Amino acid sequence: MVDIRSATEEEVRAAVVQLGEPAYRAGQIVTWLQQKGAESFDEMTNLPKALREKMKDTFELRCAKKLRRWDSSLDDTSKYLFELNDGETIESVLMHYHHGYSVCISSQVGCKMGCTFCATGMGGFRRNLTPSEMLAQVQAIERDKHIRVSNIVLMGMGEPLDNYDAVLRFLRLVSAESGLNIGMRHISLSTCGVVDRIYDLMQEKLQLTLSVSLHAPNDEIRRKTMPVARRWDMYELLTACRDYEQTTGRRISFEYAMISGVNDSDACAKELAEKLRGTLCHVNLIPVNEVKENQYKRSSRERLERFSDILSRSGIAVTVRRTLGADINASCGQLRQKSFEQTDGSDVISGSDNDRDV
Ligand code: SAH
Ligand code: SF4
């Protein structure tokens, strides 16, 4: 069956004509699939019943069904657990900023990359998401909260550049005028550093923000926490980043999770500053989010400040990132395939009632 929410407007038109229907129906169908986030063909009430029945036989409608929502009591962040058509589950996060709503979506069920600090990585890999399943996360949240999402970050579960074709198609669909119309400048994509795909992506010349998860100033430390660093070393990665920035004119964002005693010394800061000198970039420092499966501890506030000072005195743009949704385990690296089961049957859980140890 055709995964119709993953289809472009032209592809929907061709499919509709194949069904013996007039081409103008495609516009109506695309509005339902892409803008309104329809969750069934029966919702599409401006289409003839006979056509809806034909669509049920020919097309598959991939959705993200809300199983649980956790609302933070510290800030306006919500975490969602969604079930996909085949029963796999993923998490997404809604954040509220002064400029609007931002959704952090997953691109895979699990992840192959095995970073040692990340809960997603520890759970292993199940499968890639389809473009429709990435869209459905945004749409389900818009429907649930009656809001319009203005920004998207591909920073949930999975490595987006390990699911390259589907992610690219998703980006085209979500930014299309006939769709949610979220411009590339409002989209960020985070990668652990899949170098060959960074080269592919730069050829697309998209105006999105590329975030690269660095988390170490040298290969020795990086290889201990990020297996991908054994495939491509930092020299190759940083060369790709400079090429990316020159080809697209877009400044790269480097993510650096500060782990106490692992990558947070003054010497690490100086080495990092040296490596990034001359690169048009921005460094985001974030205290590592602790997960129960490993021993990593977050660096102290003072350590973060000191590290940040060393970078900025070397002329590197740096910010210490706020952690949102801390009471509901909604932060980077804390998303999982299955969060704990709540026993009271409620599908909305607020931060204060929450068990921290999910
Ligand atoms: N796979 C991609 C995107 C998803 S992870 C990537 O790795 O970039 C999103 C971000 O969370 C990445 O920067 C990742 O390195 C970071 N992250 C993972 N686990 C974390 C943790 N425990 N604490 C802080 N950041 C973490
Ligand atoms: Fe995968 Fe990113 Fe987690 Fe690494 S940090 S395991 S690449 S999701």
Protein model, in words:
By secondary structure, the protein is α/β, with parallel strands linked by helices. It has helices at 9-18, 25-35, 49-58, 119-122, 131-145, 164-175, 195-204, 219-225, 228-231, 234-248, 266-276, 301-313; strands spanning 2-3, 59-60, 65-71, 78-83, 89-97, 100-104, 108-110, 125-128, 149-154, 187-191, 209-213, 252-258, 281-287, 317-320, 348-350. Helices cover 34% and strands 21% of the residues. The strands form three sheets. It has an eleven-stranded mixed β-sheet with strand order 14-13-12-11-10-9-6-5-4-3-15, covered by helices on one side. The protein has a two-stranded parallel sheet with strand order 1-2. Strands 7-8 form a two-stranded antiparallel ribbon. Helix 6 links the parallel strand 9 and strand 10. The two termini are 37 Å apart. Residues 352-358 have low confidence and may be disordered. The structure holds S-adenosyl-L-homocysteine and iron/sulfur cluster. Residues 111, 113-115, 118, 120-121, 158-159, 192, 213, 333 line the site of iron/sulfur cluster.
